[in-house]
Amino acid sequence: MTRISSAASNVLALATLTALAGTAVWAEGTTESQYRLFIGDHAQGVVRAFDAETGDALAEFAIDMTPALTASASGRTVFAVQGDAGKVAVIDTGLAVEDHGDHADLKVSDAALLDLTLTGTKPAHVVDGSGRIALFDDGTGAVTVFDESALHEGSFVPQVLEPGAAHHGLAAPMGAYLVVSMPGETPEEPRRGLKLLDQSGAQVGEGVDCPGVHGQAQSARVFAFGCKDGVVLATPGPSGGAPQFQHLPTADLGEGNVSTLKGGTALQVFLGNYGADAVVLIEPGSDTPFRKVDLPTRRVDFALDPVKARNAYILTEDGQLHLLDILSGEITQSVKVTEPYSMDGHWRDPRPRLAVAGDHIAITDPLQGLVRMIATDTFAEVRKIPVAGVPYTIVAAGGSGASH
């Protein structure tokens, strides 16, 4: 656990530097924090935007069907994936944080649905790799790659690669390279591993076995991918060279596998699901990279806090929200926030989803037509945001900066 302990020290140092930087910001302008919530409806093709602090409704965007929502790492863009409709709507969140070294500027404008719509046979996973976006089309196996900035600057000319046959896959940009899932050779083996492509789409080196690959996340410059038998890490090569694959087996953790992953920001750590009623902390570079955390009942959703780096939040089907301390690997607080939502039934049934917006955890409560705002420091519900329809998927966007 040396790496995480070292990282924790870095977080304290970072907090000190941030406080000093904030003093300088006040000399130039006003420091401002803004967060917005984007909520997909379970029954209709609608995405609704709200101010996370006031609960005010900001916008409503009509699309074709219930979306899966993915926010870019910058928070500037939300992708509303409508696989069965063959479309991905693109929403400008109206929040842009620009880094200027000693401080950041926060630019605020109206959230807007862009005229640009990404299309495909069955578009699925959208993955951000440091500002470069890859959209995988399950219906064809094609990958559309582009820079996020091009969406907002009117210079959108994507690159389309065709690395393999149609399958429920994924692609992750890593600098000049792209990590892509490999389809299996039979319907019983839908996904068998990962391979590396260069900018022309040519394969680089050998692939790596990752049976049933599903789920990915980035922490620092490392990507992690879930497999039926473990986790594959893709680490950038020296001097911008080709990324290297490392397979970490999970056989010692017992029955289960990782298929959903979240990546830490200030700490290089991943949090993944493991079976129905556990999660696993994954620490690259550690002699013991896995720490399994058993939960009191089945897991509904989970999220990492991008600011309070040691915090993870897990909602279980009994309506309890749990605080997981990443450093200790222990659940340190639990509170009931919703009525029970059973995990029996279809996986697409309306159940709560989590997003972290500054000092709050936003939790959709589909059956009550609400988003519940929970304070990250006290775990108390500080307000309810009424939402029309059946609020379901949710992402948060925003940050802090100087407003000149």
Kindly describe this structure.
With 404 residues, the chain is mostly beta strands. The protein has a single domain (2-403), classed as 7 Propeller (Methylamine Dehydrogenase, Chain H), CATH 2.130.10. Helices cover 8% and strands 50% of the residues. It is built from 2 helices and 34 strands. The strands form 9 sheets. A 4-stranded antiparallel sheet has the order 3-2-1-34. The longest helix has 27 residues, at 2-28. It is globular and about 50 Å long. Residues 1-27 have low confidence and may be disordered. Keywords: Hydrolase, Signal. GO terms for molecular function: hydrolase activity.
- The count of helical stretches stands at 2
- Distance from N terminus to C terminus (CA atoms, Å) equals 42 Å
Instruction: Say what the CATH topology is.
Output: Methylamine Dehydrogenase, Chain H
* SS-based class: mainly beta
* CATH class label: Mainly Beta
Number of strands: 34
Fourth CATH level, the homologous superfamily: YVTN repeat-like/Quinoprotein amine dehydrogenase
> Mind telling me which CATH architecture this is?
7 Propeller
Radius of gyration: 20 Å
Task: Give the integer mean of the pLDDT values.
Answer: 91
Task: Name the helicity range.
Answer: under 10%
GO molecular function: hydrolase activity
Protein name: YncE family protein
Organism: Pseudotabrizicola algicola
Keywords: Hydrolase, Signal
